[in-house]
Specification:
The protein has 26 helices and 20 strands. With 720 residues, the chain is of the alpha/beta class. Helix 5 packs across helix 8, helix 8 runs antiparallel to helix 11 and helix 9 packs parallel to helix 11. This is Tyrosine protein kinase. It holds the Pfam family GNVR. It is a multi-pass membrane protein.
Length: 720
Amino acid sequence: MSVIPNTQVNQNSDDIELGKILGILIDSRWFIITITFLFAIVGISYAMLATPIYKADALIQVEQKSTGMPALGEMGELFASESSAMTEIEIIKSRMILGDTVDKLNLTTISEPKYLPIIGKGIARLQGDQRNLTVSRFKVPENVLEPVFELIVIDSSVGKYELVNKSEDRVLIGEVGKLAKNGELELLVSSLNAEDGDEFTISKRSRLDAIQWLQQNLSVNERGKQTGILQLSFIGESRIKIERILNSISQSYFLQNVARNSAEAENSLQFLRNHLPDIKSQLTASEDVLNKFRQENESIDLGLEAKSTLDVMVTIEAQLNELTFKESEISQRFTKEHPAYVALLDKRRALLSERERLNQQIQKLPKTQREILRMTRDVEVNQQIYVQLLNKVQELNIVKASTVGNVRILDMAQSYTRAVEPKKSLIVIFLTLLGAIFATVFSLLRAAFHRGVESPDEIEAIGLPVYASIPMSDWQIELEKKQKSKKQLSIADSLLAVSNPADLSIEALRSLRTSLHFAMMEAKNNIIMISGPSPGIGKSFVSANMAAVIAKTGASVLVIDADMRKGRMEKQMAATTKPGLSDYLSGQDSINNILKKPGVDGLDFIARGDVPPNPSELLMHPRFGELMKWASEQYDIVLVDTPPILAVTDPAIVGAHAGTTLLVGRFGQNAVKEIEVTKHRFEQSGIEVKGFILNAVVRKASSYYGGNYGYYNYSYSNDK
């Protein structure tokens, strides 16, 4: 004996599930196509209406800092330093640089034409709207919380306009090219291109907000690694505007760089200029003292040894003074622990030691020579210091004049001709795919959460046999349209069994007729009650057409519309509503008066009659039992159409008189649990439900691929 592996069973189950999913997608194909098409339309519309965003870029080179005068030697080294690219990028994005651009271009003022919400701007662009407004000055009082105004063109020929606030109050009237004032409110419109009645929106934002807007749209990156080449990029709606903004940023950065390098030389120059008057005063005083001493001592000359010592002393003093200047400059850049600072201090100590040694040597000279040597040394030292300072001043003047900074603008701003945003093709493709995915997922979720019965097996699983599955009839749909458009119809235009006897739905009812023959063999009478769980499931359609099908076999059939609340079977029977069942039960008419002949041999019909205030009480009247007894004796089959059991109790009352009870449910509408509750409700009333009729079955791909069977047309076709 062979055993089927579990893997094979699981595989078959998976195949069925995959097949059902495929079937669901096939059933929902038009929904998926429609939603995908709508998403594609939205994508195309957005791509056409979205405002294009352009990009402009510029190139800046950042070189190693230098004075621009390599010949100055040690003096130039004081101003040399390196600046990393990241530091320069942050400087460019600083409020110092961007704020200057905001001020130059008046970016705190925002002006644009007034458009329709969402789509207005795109439509205006597609229509070639040339409206334009340039505001050179716009000052708003500080107490205005929301500085948003509307400018309305009054006379475009002379450029006259009015400014209104959010409350539509006029606050200003002005002309193009003239400054308009109203208290603290000031407006200067430099250019206006519009027609009479055109409106513009003018708003004011803070300087910080404008700077943040620049920071958001500005991108600065280094090209390559440690190349010092910075690429500045800016995005915006107007190509001209973004070029101006980027050029302004580049120029501001360049000028501040030059100004900073010049400032270093200016600080040193100022330091030297402050010391020149003191040194000159000291030189004059020392010369006067020397001349006076010589006059008093009759011009004593120095010996060779003293003169040699004087030269050395003067040289040492000059070097010490030079170190003093260097220390004042280097102290601004480094601490005393820096190697350069330490070397300078060591050199000073060595010079001071040498000067002390020479001073001790001078003490050995005669007193007169010592004095003249000291005075001569002071004169020459002060003279050398003064000359040295003058030379430094000239050198720094040259440095300042020749400073060009370490920044060079390689490429001025230029915008691309094609917009960088939106990516039209990508947007259309993305939204189309999104629509397809959304429609597919929605279809699968709808099928997953859908609890409507779509297979007879689901009903039979609760112990209720399915007597027939009636397919959806396109012919019946057309008949229902005729019933809505025309008030009076013949039975051939209202009843499907007469209008199109070969319809698949009628064939299914013929199958039901055969099943009923065996189901009623043990019934207590020939009365059949048709009910269901909810309205709109086709009970009346089944009752009327099944009665016509049975009548065509030669049997006498009576159809009673027992739904005295919302019954509409008279439309299918091409009969009138009055008189009817309610009239008989209330004692207003007799049985013979309420019987109607629809036009089918062997078929009689009783309509519902007037809508009574108490349908349930009328059905409990003995007259209804007498009617059922009389009908059972007079007809071969009695069909009673009742309202839904889950809505009212009428079917439970009628079911007590019926020998056979059938339930009708609609394909894909009634859930299994709903049908089970309906069956249980009848059983609580002591009524046995013989079977179930699944109505309006639609041939779906999900059922076909899921393993369910369908219906086949096997009728005779007459080709003429």
